[in-house]
Sequence to fold (492 residues):
Amino acid sequence: MKRLKCTISYDGTNFHGYQIQPNQRSVQETLEATLTHMHKKPVLVVGSGRTDAKVHAVGQVIHFDTSLNIPVLKWEKALNALLPTDIVVQRVEEVSNEFHARFDVIKKEYRYKVSRTPGRDVFKRHYSYHYPYPLDLLKIQEAMNLLIGTHDFTSFCSAKTEVKDKIRTLYHVELIEKDDELIFRFVGNGFLYNMVRILVGTLLEVGQGKTQPQEIQTILEKQDRTLSGKTAPGHGLYLWKVSYDN
Amino acid sequence: MKRLKCTISYDGTNFHGYQIQPNQRSVQETLEATLTHMHKKPVLVVGSGRTDAKVHAVGQVIHFDTSLNIPVLKWEKALNALLPTDIVVQRVEEVSNEFHARFDVIKKEYRYKVSRTPGRDVFKRHYSYHYPYPLDLLKIQEAMNLLIGTHDFTSFCSAKTEVKDKIRTLYHVELIEKDDELIFRFVGNGFLYNMVRILVGTLLEVGQGKTQPQEIQTILEKQDRTLSGKTAPGHGLYLWKVSYDN
Fold:
């Protein structure tokens, strides 16, 4: 048995998220169905983590074990020929049997795209959050700087979050302006459920003047989800990159 | 009765083209169904011209007549609230009853997007033609310059074209490089069936060295569709702008 690590991108529009769920189209189920078809026996896929419905991936990482005798360089083509067009395998590498796509993650990058065109852009409706309201970008940046570092992010995750330890470290928090888009970039050692979407929702309220940048500090300290902003919609979010120790 | 001129954009992915066809989803049918629902009687829509299956529009123009007493400024919102999300009304203007969206066109702009990323970009699969092969852009530009002006475009339209007069004038023919994309821009007084897609297919063959730039001249003169290149796929094409005399 060989273990293969695959870097994949997907358009989340027509998926009910990464994880298998009954009667819903998911990325994991689609990957497993293709691999099971190839192997003529069930194959399980382990992803670096879940993504929600409508959320996209530029560089999600998964692993699986295979007994097939396909050279590693041919795997990319073989999988892309069989997978539906909304999943694209970018890279396949053979890794040690100890490698684990979820447990071995050391760093993840998420990006969130906000479209600021006055009218709706029909070509972006699935790929960025349309937010045509005035925004003070300097205030947003001020608030983003307060997020860098190690914090308890209880205020910035879904109340449904089950993990106990809500302390995470954000290494980079950056605002990129590109044409009519704002891109919120977050690089950290881990992210809680809905964390990026709640951070963006809160930062947009800062940009609108509804929340002062310095309040971010207080919201973090109070560890109370009701103090932060709305959860921004899934279709603006991209799992951009997953990093490992090798 | 008032005549309204609407500028609309649409994502062509899930349309079988602009024009009504039996048992197929079309832009015209979708617009007419919405307007008929609003008016409680059949409303006919006249477009500036057809677009094929998968072809997009940034600025298609249509007109229709209405007896409804909606102020012109409210029409945009009213239509966008009722139309499916893959059609967006950008502007609605009241025009004279003589205005005709097809007959009064004086200029049209089409753009064709080619994606040159080595691997497939899952987010562009419906929005640009993936062409990862080496291209000599100077040669393409040389060939494009030969297309400017008034020519008989028989060699560059579908053999199925029914119009007799195949003489058209191209005012601007331009190649734009943007990130990993090439954008072919054509502005002319009119376009024949499949003309832009055959022009782009031929220009890509020029870029690949399969056709010499100067051969464009000969191909135009010979008036023979078999001498030009393949028809590039519909999903890279955008009806960008339609201009009128007012």
